[in-house]
TrEMBL record:
Polar residues bias locations: 31-51
Family per similarity comment: Belongs to the WD repeat CDC20/Fizzy family.
Protein name, as recorded: Cell division cycle 20
Keywords associated with the record: Cell cycle, Cell division, Repeat, WD repeat
Length: 502
């Protein structure tokens, strides 16, 4: 009996090393079994009826509300939040289920039941178990973010590739003295020839300044000290200079030989404005009359235009020679047709007449690249720049400059309009055409600017003012490569009046 008792003791000791069937399940075993059974039972509608609700345990933490962890390294392919093993198993099941054919007849009802079962069994919505979920509107990129591919391949201009605005100096390139200058708003005492020679009238004398060489020449001087020069105008070729005087005459000078060719008398008052159209010279007088002179014939006076009631202070032929624009102290702007060869007339009819200006109109300029566009500027009582369409007769635009306008000229290099001003600014303004937005202001004159003219290469504008100075502003220089190409295209033209003046 003692022997059997010893064997029983040995068996009882050995049983301690064997698995204990009645003991509670280990934690790691309980966690593994619950993740394998509850996930599949909770997502299988056909088998969920055989599982008791009491056998599934609600997890202590809601997986769907776990805090997401930021990846330790930046620049990865994508960011996947950390999830527990149960959610990964559910996600794997959803991926395999998507490829299986199913009945789509009651999709809405099945999805609602599936959501309810998932909430009851797992404590979170099944949609939250998906690895990737796309929905809603995409978030805006953070401020300052720039897509590298867009920078490299996009056709849109970036700040680095935008063309920079040209530099316009606020100081003149050169200043010339103009002593004894007559400070009269209605006179035109400055003109620049196509041969790069600047003509200026100082009281009763005319001086020529060669802008290429820098030489100064006294061309002529009136005999009587009380007489004075009122207007100057170069021919297109730059060989001859017309001079209007206070003794009602128009003189014609050969500049190369410094010789007066003829003196034409037809006006009854001073000649304050001149303009050439081939062999036709038009002159405006203080009497309000405009005379056409054919300089090829002895009887030079061929036509008279009577429209203005006061002094004609502005006179400009269009570049194509079709129209003559005139402005007067009566605040009117007229446009006249071309003179017919061989016709002497005193009843010329104007094409247009505009009365919108409220001040004297001395400033007139034709657009070189649009032959039907005329710009006009009013005096102290008006101060407006107006752009006209001669064909339609309409005013395209109007701008209040807040200052008296004494002269206008178009700068074709940058398609801009330059205006000279008297009271109250006494400066020069550059405007973009056709928007008439201000590009720059050129300040420096100490008195009102009386007139301005453009150099033959259209890069420099010369201004003359009551402070007895002439200032040259180099504001329209073009690229050297474009300049050489333009010069090659320009062809020399023979002078029409070179052979026929007598």
């Amino acid at each position: 009996m003692a022997q059997f008792g010893f064997e029983n003791d040995i068996h009882s000791i050995l049983k301690l090393d064997m698995p204990i069937t009645n003991a509670p399940m280990a934690r790691w075993q309980r966690k593994a079994s619950s993740s394998n059974t509850s996930a599949l039972n909770g997502l299988s509608p056909g088998k969920s009826a055989n599982v008791s609700l009491s056998s599934s345990k609600t997890p202590s933490k809601t997986p769907g509300k776990n805090k997401k962890q930021t990846p330790s390294k930046m620049g990865g392919d994508r960011f996947i939040p950390t999830r527990n093993s149960k959610q990964m198993d559910v996600a794997s099941f959803l991926l395999t289920k998507e490829n299986e054919p199913g009945d789509t007849s009651n999709t809405a009802g099945a999805s609602e039941n599936q959501k309810a079962w998932s909430m009851s069994l797992n404590g979170y919505n099944i949609e939250e178990a998906k690895i990737l979920h796309l929905g809603g509107k995409p978030l805006n990129a953070p401020e300052g973010y720039q897509n590298n591919l867009k920078v490299l391949y996009s056709q849109a201009t970036t700040p680095a590739s935008v063309k920079k605005t040209r530099y316009i100096s606020s100081t003149p390139d050169r200043i010339l003295d103009a002593p004894d200058l007559r400070n009269d708003f209605y006179l035109n005492l400055l003109d620049w020839s196509s041969r790069n020679v600047l003509a200026v009238a100082l009281h009763n004398s005319v001086y020529l300044w060669d802008a290429t060489q820098g030489d100064i020449i006294l061309l002529m001087k009136l005999e009587r000290e009380e007489d004075y020069i009122c207007s100057l105008a170069w021919t297109k070729e730059g060989s001859y200079l017309a001079i209007g005087t206070s003794d009602c005459k128009v003189q014609l000078w050969d500049v190369d030989n410094q010789k007066r060719l003829r003196s034409m008398a037809s006006h009854t008052a001073r000649v304050g404005s001149l303009s050439w159209n081939d062999h036709i010279l038009s002159s405006g007088s203080r009497s309000g009359h405009i005379h056409h002179h054919d300089v090829r014939v002895a009887e030079h006076h061929i036509s008279t235009l009577t429209g203005h009631s006061q002094e004609v202070c502005g006179l400009k032929w269009s570049p194509d020679g079709r129209y003559l624009a005139s402005g007067g102290n009566d605040n009117l702007v007229y446009v006249w047709p071309r003179v017919q060869d061989g016709s002497a007339s005193n009843d010329g009819q104007s094409v247009r007449c505009w009365s919108e200006h409220q001040g004297a109109v001395k400033a007139l300029a034709w657009c070189p690249w649009q032959s039907n566009i005329l710009a006009s500027g009013g005096g102290t009582s008006d101060r407006h720049i107006r752009i006209w369409n001669v064909n339609s007769g309409s005013c395209i635009s109007s701008l209040d400059t807040q200052s008296q306008i004494s002269s206008l000229v178009f700068a074709p290099n940058y398609k801009e309009l330059v205006s000279a001003h008297g009271y109250a600014h006494n400066n020069v303004a550059i405007w973009k055409y056709p928007s008439l937005t201000r590009v720059a202001e050129l300040n420096g004159h100490e008195d009102r600017v009386l007139s301005l003219t453009l150099s033959p290469d259209c890069s420099t504008v010369a201004t003359i003012a009551g402070d007895e100075t002439i200032r040259l502003w180099k504001s329209f220089e073009v690229d050297p490569v474009k300049k050489k190409a333009k010069e090659r295209m320009v062809k020399s033209t023979s002078s029409v009046i070179h052979q026929s003046i007598r």
